[in-house]
Predict the structure.
Amino acid sequence: MQDQAPPATADVAAGSIPAAADPSSLDVSSQLPPGMDRLDVMMGNTDSLALTKMGFAHLVQNADVVGLFAFLVMAVMSILVWYYILYNGLKLAAVKIRGQKLINDFWDAATPRDAIARLKEEPELEPFSKIALDAAFAAEHHSDALGGRMAEALSRHEFIDRAVRSGVQREAARFESGLTLLASVGSTAPFVGLFGTVWGIYHALISIGREGEATLDVVAGPVGEALIMTCIGLGVAIPSVLAYNFFVRSNKALNARFAAFAHDLLDYFATGNRAGRGQRFGTRQHVPSTG
């Protein structure tokens, strides 16, 4: 009885079933995408390849005009947000460092002339010096106008008060620069990111309809685009909201310091003394005797 060859051997010899390729003979290691090995290629595993389509680089390379526009809008928002965060933060830090020292130097000056000379040395962005200069110039202007119609219409106290109020409002407004933008970005950036998310899901549905199946390699790219857009939107909105709340609180405290200093200036330039404090130039800690 003649021996028959095993079915598997006979099929391979006949060519109906291809012989397994020798892994050592496949020189594809240099052509594999990141995250895949030669075993993935041999086993037909496409999940590893699909995961490579979910990165930021794939988003930039494959996004359409609408997706790129949403990404650029959020990039511009982020740049403006961090610009105003740094700009306003540095201004507040400079005022906190220099403000109290300037006030002390102002009241420690031997004469009003020395105090005004000290104020004029301050940079343009220093607010306390500008408020004090407004009060000093208003007092000088009213003194020069004694006997005229302006002095008859407004008392010295009223004239200096108007100048000081105007100075406080001007300096307070300068520290509010960028707050509107921070509030706007904080409220709109999540929706811009959500728009990018919806657009990525729309692309995923189109890919599923085109391929006829919802495999990972079909939806990985669009879903990755959607997730990245969501993260960018939140990454822009969260710093905006936090910075807005911080600057609003800091500006309220700074405005209170402006008001207190302005009241002292009004008292001094209108009456020659800080009411309730007995303080003149060069005698910051002096209290007049009551005897």
